[in-house]
C-alpha cells in the first residue's frame, strides 16, 4: 500500500528500471547509493549491474522488512539502511570512498536532497562521481534550463555550476504505481572535472535566491546592495535575473563574499 506522505510511486517494470540503471553508464566496481528503494524494483536492476556494492537508504520500515530477502540473496553486495536520506551522512556510509547516486526520488523532498548533494560536491570535490535522479518533468526542465529562458533559475544555476545535467528520458505516469499526476524525467548529472569552487555555497544560494525572488525586476532593484560590484564586472544593472549567466552569478557571489 503506497503512502502518499512518503512520496511513494513505485516502478515494477524491469525494462524501465534497467533503463534507469543503464543511464548511469558503466558501474563496474562502483559503489552505488540508492535513495528510497521501496519494494526494490530499481534496487534489483542496480544489483544486475557490475557495481561492487549497492547501499540503499529507506525511511519506510515496511520496505526494510520486504527487502530483507533481497539483501540476503545479494551475498553482501546490498546494504539497506533505515533512515531519513535528508539526515544521512553519505560519506560515512561509504567510508569516504567515491560513489554514484541513482534514485527514483520521493518528489516532496527531491529539491532539498539535490541541494544537499550539490553542497557535498562543492565541499568534497570527487566523492560523488555521478548522479542519476528522477524528478517531476517540470523540475528537471528547471535544472537543465539555459540562461534567458523562463525556466532558468536558482536550480539551474546551482546545478550547472557544479555539474553538467541533461535529461536522459521521460517517463509517463502509467509506468508508476500509483500513477502520479505529472510526467517524470530522469536527469543525469555528470560532475564537472574543473570545479570553480571560489564562491562559497551559501553565498551563491543567497545571491540567486535574492535575484529570483523578484525575477521580473531589474537587478538594480532586486540586488540593490550589490550595484557597485555589478558595475565593476560589467554586469548590466538593467538586466533581469534570468539574463545573467551562471559565470556572472559566480563572479558576483565571489565578490560579495
Ligand atoms: N525506488 C522505488 C520507490 C520510489 S518511491 C521504485 O522506483 O519503485 C520513493 C521512495 O522513497 C519510497 O520508497 C519512500 O518510502 C522513500 N522515501 C521517502 N522519503 C524518504 C526519506 N526522507 N529518506 C529515505 N527514503 C525516503
Structure overview:
- The protein has a seven-stranded mixed β-sheet with strand order 4-3-2-5-6-9-7, sandwiched between helices.
- The mean pLDDT is 96.
- The chain has helices spanning 14-22, 41-47, 61-66, 68-73, 90-93, 110-124, 137-144, 154-162, 201-213, 219-222, 227-232, 246-256, and strands at 10-11, 31-35, 53-58, 78-82, 99-104, 128-136, 163-171, 176-177, 184-191.
- It is of the alpha/beta class and 257 residues long.
- Strand 2 (31-35), helix 2 (41-47) and strand 3 form a beta-alpha-beta unit.
- The relative contact order is 0.12.
- The protein has twelve helices and nine strands.
- The protein folds into two domains: 4-191, Rossmann fold (3-Layer(aba) Sandwich); 201-256, rRNA adenine dimethylase, C-terminal domain (Helicase, Ruva Protein, domain 3, Orthogonal Bundle), CATH 1.10.8.100.
- Helix 6 packs parallel to helix 8 (154-162), helix 7 (137-144) packs across helix 8 (154-162) and helix 8 (154-162) crosses helix 12 (246-256).
- The protein binds S-adenosyl-L-homocysteine (SAH).
- S-adenosyl-L-homocysteine (SAH) binds next to strand 1, helix 2 and strand 3.
- S-adenosyl-L-homocysteine (SAH) is lined by residues 6-11, 35-38, 41-42, 57-60, 63, 84-86, 104, 106, 109.
Mean pLDDT: 96
Number of distinct helices: 12
The largest sheet is: 7 strands, mixed
CATH topology value of the largest domain: Rossmann fold
CATH superfamily of the largest domain: Vaccinia Virus protein VP39
Please state the structural category: alpha/beta
Overall CATH class of the largest domain: Alpha Beta
Tell the overall outline: elongated
Query: Which range best describes the helical content: under 10%, 10-25%, 25-40%, 40-55%, 55-70% or over 70%?
Result: 25-40%
Summarize the helix and strand pattern as letters.
EHEHEHHEHEHEHHEEEHHHH
Low-confidence stretches are none
Domain module tally: 2
Gyration radius, rounded: 20 Å
End-to-end distance:
49 Å
* SS strand fraction: 15-25%
CATH architecture of the largest domain: 3-Layer(aba) Sandwich
Q: Looking across the biggest beta sheet, what order are the strands in?
A: 4-3-2-5-6-9-7
Amino acid at each position: 500500500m503506497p503512502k502518499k506522505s512518503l512520496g511513494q510511486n513505485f516502478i515494477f517494470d524491469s525494462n524501465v528500471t534497467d533503463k534507469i540503471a543503464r543511464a548511469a553508464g558503466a558501474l563496474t566496481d562502483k559503489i552505488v547509493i540508492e535513495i528510497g528503494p521501496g519494494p526494490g524494483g530499481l534496487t534489483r536492476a542496480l544489483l544486475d549491474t557490475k557495481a561492487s556494492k549497492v547501499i540503499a537508504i529507506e525511511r519506510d520500515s515496511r520496505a526494510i522488512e520486504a527487502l530483507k530477502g533481497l539483501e540476503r540473496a545479494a551475498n553482501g553486495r546490498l546494504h539497506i539502511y533505515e533512515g531519513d536520506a535528508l539526515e544521512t551522512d553519505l560519506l560515512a556510509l561509504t567510508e569516504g570512498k567515491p560513489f554514484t547516486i541513482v534514485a527514483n526520488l520521493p518528489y516532496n523532498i527531491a529539491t532539498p536532497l539535490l541541494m544537499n548533494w550539490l553542497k557535498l560536491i562543492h565541499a568534497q570535490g570527487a566523492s560523488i562521481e555521478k548522479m542519476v535522479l528522477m524528478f517531476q518533468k517540470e523540475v528537471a526542465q528547471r535544472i537543465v534550463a539555459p540562461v534567458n529562458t523562463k525556466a532558468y533559475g536558482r536550480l539551474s544555476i546551482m546545478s550547472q555550476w557544479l555539474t553538467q545535467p541533461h535529461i536522459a528520458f521521460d517517463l509517463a505516469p502509467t509506468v508508476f504505481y500509483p500513477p502520479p499526476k505529472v510526467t517524470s524525467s530522469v536527469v543525469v548529472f555528470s560532475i564537472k572535472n574543473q570545479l570553480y569552487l571560489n564562491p562559497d555555497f551559501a553565498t551563491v544560494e543567497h545571491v540567486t535566491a535574492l535575484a529570483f525572488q523578484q525575477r521580473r525586476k531589474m537587478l538594480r532593484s532586486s540586488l540593490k546592495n550589490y550595484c557597485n560590484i555589478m558595475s565593476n564586472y560589467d554586469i548590466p544593472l538593467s538586466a533581469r535575473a534570468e539574463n545573467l549567466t551562471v559565470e556572472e552569478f559566480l563572479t558576483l557571489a565571489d565578490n560579495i563574499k
